[in-house]
Amino acid sequence: MRCLCGTWVYWMLQCALFIPIRCREFPHYVFQSLMKGYNKDEWPSYQEGPGQPTRIYVEVYIVSISSIDAGSMDFVVDFYLTQHWKDPRMRFSENMSKVLELHHLRQIKKLWLPDPYIINSKSAYFHEVTLPNRFARITPDGNVTYNSRLTAKLSCQMQLKLYPMDTQECEIYLESYGYSTEILYLHWHWDDSKAFSITEHLELPQFFMPTPKKLECVDTYSMGFFSCLKVKLKFQRQVSYHLIQTYLPTFLIVSISWVSFWLSVEAVPARISLGITTLLTMTTLISGAKQGLPAVSYIKALDVWMGTCTFFVFSTLLEYVVVSKTSRKKIPGFAPHRYSSMANSHPISDSRTSIAPHTTVKFDNCFIPTMNGPGKSSSRNHLKPGRMSGSEYETDRESPQEAYLPRPPRSTQLSAAQQAKRIDVIARILFPSLFGAFNFVYWTYYMLQSWEESGT
């Protein structure tokens, strides 16, 4: 009896100590058994003969998109790349395990893996924190799933003619590097919702991203045909940022430059200082707006706006030059008439008519009182016979000329100061009208072009 109790305790201890260890080592045992006779240099469909390529089904899940840089024409994308394929050599019994997961890189490297690379990648790397962000999963029927997390800086050939109302189309371009279509063929995942997806919380500060497009393609090289996958991403730039940072300040600068039209022509320091200050401010704003943009050979929408605003500010300075020159110009033939010169120009009649003393005589637009009376000068006022109270009279040669000449006729020719003032008045209406017409044409044209390019 004592012996049976000892045997029973012995086996209980064996189960408690060794069975959990064997269970913990079981996945490793299954993987080791699968690796017996396994050749990682042979692709899964190698035994099936030529014309039977291994088909890889790809999923791309975007975690973040950042640094969309028009200057270097690239963008940074952080994504998960998941690949599915079937490998008959990796089958095992369901009794052994439901699924086999490999998290250690040394185990994953023992498997045959597809070789897709990103064609338009400038640089890329796998994430290694806190462990290499890669794992493989094998099901009993031989289906292999390989997942990895990458960050890549991808080139994007941008067209900036409509900048900052442009829409850029960039790509994530995957292709098999060494396996031709006879060995390997890339496909998007059979579930379209999983083939390409983007995290729900992704927000781009300056861009709106419509639904991306997926494509399957085959590229031809001298080495043969190679399967490829494309994702076309559209980045529609939001103009609101540039409205606040670029368009509104320049609009206000142009408007401020028109204040000089309301200043006096003699206010030389004020008008010159205002014109030069606004022109220098425009130059600074142009330099700031062009920072981060590449040097291109064509004209951008922003260039048209900035160039026109600079032209209006500069034209304000030129307008003052014209006004200042006009105000100082001597107009030939324009001089104030003197009574003496007008008296000599009037014919004097020999006929004489006497007017009673202290009588007011009305000429054209003037009343002249007579000076003769008791104790006054003995000289008589002589008028040419005519009509009284509205009639025209002329003095004779014996009358005091300055006392009896009518007011000289008003000249219809403007003085230099009046001409300069009129130029300013015209500019107050002309400049805002032209700038308003330019705004209408500019925004109508470029907004229509932007909508057409974005496909909305």
Automatic annotation (TrEMBL):
<feature type="transmembrane region" description="Helical">
    <location>
        <begin position="246"/>
        <end position="265"/>
    </location>
</feature>
<dbReference type="InterPro" id="IPR036734">
    <property type="entry name" value="Neur_chan_lig-bd_sf"/>
</dbReference>
<dbReference type="InterPro" id="IPR038050">
    <property type="entry name" value="Neuro_actylchol_rec"/>
</dbReference>
<dbReference type="GO" id="GO:0004888">
    <property type="term" value="F:transmembrane signaling receptor activity"/>
</dbReference>
<feature type="domain" description="Neurotransmitter-gated ion-channel transmembrane">
    <location>
        <begin position="246"/>
        <end position="329"/>
    </location>
</feature>
<dbReference type="Pfam" id="PF02932">
    <property type="entry name" value="Neur_chan_memb"/>
</dbReference>
<comment type="similarity">
    <text>Belongs to the ligand-gated ion channel (TC 1.A.9) family.</text>
</comment>
<dbReference type="InterPro" id="IPR006202">
    <property type="entry name" value="Neur_chan_lig-bd"/>
</dbReference>
<keyword id="KW-0812">Transmembrane</keyword>
<dbReference type="GO" id="GO:0005230">
    <property type="term" value="F:extracellular ligand-gated monoatomic ion channel activity"/>
</dbReference>
<protein>
    <submittedName>
        <fullName>Glycine receptor subunit alphaZ1</fullName>
    </submittedName>
</protein>
<keyword id="KW-0732">Signal</keyword>
<feature type="transmembrane region" description="Helical">
    <location>
        <begin position="304"/>
        <end position="323"/>
    </location>
</feature>
<dbReference type="GO" id="GO:0005886">
    <property type="term" value="C:plasma membrane"/>
</dbReference>
<dbReference type="InterPro" id="IPR018000">
    <property type="entry name" value="Neurotransmitter_ion_chnl_CS"/>
</dbReference>
<keyword id="KW-0407">Ion channel</keyword>
<keyword id="KW-0675">Receptor</keyword>
<dbReference type="InterPro" id="IPR006201">
    <property type="entry name" value="Neur_channel"/>
</dbReference>
<dbReference type="Pfam" id="PF02931">
    <property type="entry name" value="Neur_chan_LBD"/>
</dbReference>
<feature type="transmembrane region" description="Helical">
    <location>
        <begin position="425"/>
        <end position="445"/>
    </location>
</feature>
<keyword id="KW-1003">Cell membrane</keyword>
<keyword id="KW-0813">Transport</keyword>
<feature type="domain" description="Neurotransmitter-gated ion-channel ligand-binding">
    <location>
        <begin position="30"/>
        <end position="237"/>
    </location>
</feature>
<feature type="transmembrane region" description="Helical">
    <location>
        <begin position="272"/>
        <end position="289"/>
    </location>
</feature>
<dbReference type="InterPro" id="IPR036719">
    <property type="entry name" value="Neuro-gated_channel_TM_sf"/>
</dbReference>
<feature type="region of interest" description="Disordered">
    <location>
        <begin position="371"/>
        <end position="416"/>
    </location>
</feature>
<dbReference type="InterPro" id="IPR006028">
    <property type="entry name" value="GABAA/Glycine_rcpt"/>
</dbReference>
<keyword id="KW-0406">Ion transport</keyword>
<feature type="signal peptide">
    <location>
        <begin position="1"/>
        <end position="23"/>
    </location>
</feature>
<keyword id="KW-0472">Membrane</keyword>
<keyword id="KW-1133">Transmembrane helix</keyword>
<dbReference type="InterPro" id="IPR006029">
    <property type="entry name" value="Neurotrans-gated_channel_TM"/>
</dbReference>
